[in-house]
Amino acid sequence: MIDDSDRTWKKHWSALGDLERGGQADVKRVVRSDGTDDTVCFLKILLHQNDPERRRRMYREVAAYRTLEHPRIPKLVHSNTDKFKDSSFKLNVVTEYIPGMTLSQFIAQNGVLDVESCMVMMIGMLEVVQYCHDQEWIHRDIKPDNIVLRKDSPIDPVLVDFGLSFNRAEEDESKTPSLDELGNRFLRLPELSLGSPMKRDPRSDVTFCAGVLLFGLTGITPSILLDENRRLPHQRPTAMQILGAKFAPRPLQRLLTIFDCAFDIDLACRWQSAAELQSAIGRLNQADQTPEDEIAFLRREVDEYRASSVAMSSEENSNILQHAVDELMRVTVELRSRLGPLLVISQTNFQLDPFKARAATSLSVQRTGQSVHDWVRFTFEIVGSEVVVDAQSDGRAEPIHRTSVHQPEYGPSFKLAAETALLRQLQRELAQHRDRFAG
After folding, report:
1. DSSP secondary structure letters along 209-277
2. What are 311-327's pLDDT values in tens digits?
3. Phi/psi at 408 (nearest 5 deg)?
4. Which CATH number fits domain 1-97: 3.50.50.60, 3.30.465.10, 3.30.200.20, 3.30.210.10?
5. pTM to 2 decimals?
6. What span, in angstroms and rounded, lies between the C-alpha atoms of 309 and 270?
7. Where are the domains of the chain?
8. Residue 175 gets which letter from DSSP?
9. How confident is the model at residue 1 (pLDDT cuts 50, 70, 90)?
């Protein structure tokens, strides 16, 4: 039998006043209308009651509150979201009321956080995020608007609004279609974009937390991982200026390294868990040590780095790129043996950057004893699951080969393309020589 008293919130609760309206719901401070309890609670009323997807989201949010028990997550008091499939029920949820401003409101009113408060806040945030992940819940909407500072204290953050959350134990009924974009305008992540299959990865929450850290220290919204100049959020001039003024050189370098990893475009190269990022933040302001202690500490850091996903990924990239360059050099050796003693092949400007997954070198075929006037610039770049090889010469660049990262093939087609690029360069060299001689 349906309990009609649950069709609207007004049967159980009396409003004490409206709070700031969100994009998805009206929110109010309320107490029980029957007078049995004067505890102030937080009421959230779904705005778009006729939208099935938003009704499902509120149902998921309540499931998260019901499942998760942590001092930095509001306690569930009451809800009617189990009737989310019945449109006659006006969905609402009542949770513990957390008095205080959101992080966005606090910084707008008081300015950015001091370093110590910001670090303490982030340790607390990462603790609750790791707890959620351990319980197989992913928040997917971590941003300053969804962090309430209890009693306006930056060192006492509470994570709210689980409307976009996902539980790994859920079935497809609660799945957000892969064509939808998730996340928020605070920081748009590529893995949450339209059509991405990676919308249920807990590492996205960790990246959001890094964005909150940057916001807490600088007041700057990161927005996107790479700007028009391919700068990460912390590398942009205003952020660098603010951070440089807040930190001594050594902690600043550690912090920038933390952000380098946190904002990498590749999920596999970012911090792999909230606990991992929390540990890095904890080491940020370590006191200076004796030379012996420092050497031991540095060795531990080296060992940690060697075991980290970033190091393993960069080592793998280095091996893949070096193999591709070696194959090019094998082609040049064979070509040199066929050209005879009157012609030589020169190489210069070799570069290999495993972090950017890119290598390059310049080659030239010329007459023995003559200076080089023309080069062919070969670049090797890991793009997704492939290695792409380009040849740039005479002001033009064109792809000449692409092969699988995992099963690379540098057979006859690669050899022919590389030789063709070099012989075209030789042809231009010889033509210029004839023109000079004729003149």
Report:
1. HHHHHHHHHH----EESS-TT---GGGSHHHHHHHHHHS-HHHHHHHHHHHHHHT-SSGGGS--SHHHH
2. 567 788 899 999 999 99
3. -70, 140
4. 3.30.200.20
5. 0.64
6. 8
7. 1-97, 100-286, 313-438
8. P
9. very low
Instruction: Please give the residue that has the higher pLDDT: either 195 or 363.
Output: 363
Distance CA 282, CA 329 (A): 46
Contacts of 174 (CB under 8 A, 6+ apart): 56, 59, 60, 166, 167
| Identity of residue 76 | L
Q: How far apart are CA 2 and CA 5, in angstroms?
A: 9
CATH 1.10.1040.10 given to domain 100-286: no
pLDDT at 200: 81
Closest CA to 190 of 175, 203, 177: 203
- pLDDT tops 90 at residue 198: no
Q: Does the pLDDT value for residue 153 go beyond 80?
A: yes
Check residue 151 and report its DSSP letter.
G
Beta 187-188 vs 223-224: how paired, if at all? parallel
Q: How far is CA 346 from its chain centroid?
A: 41
What is the 3 state secondary structure string of 90-134? CCEEEEECCCCCEHHHHHHHHCCCCHHHHHHHHHHHHHHHHHHHH
10 phi and psi angles, rounded to 5 deg: -70, -15
Query: Mean of the per-residue pLDDT values for the chain?
Result: 86
Structure tokens at 84: 């989310």
* 202, 126 contact by CB (below 8 A): no
Q: What is the DSSP letter of 401?
A: E
Half-sphere exposure (Cβ direction) of 50: Cα atoms closer than 13 Å: 0
Fold agreement (1-97, 100-286): no
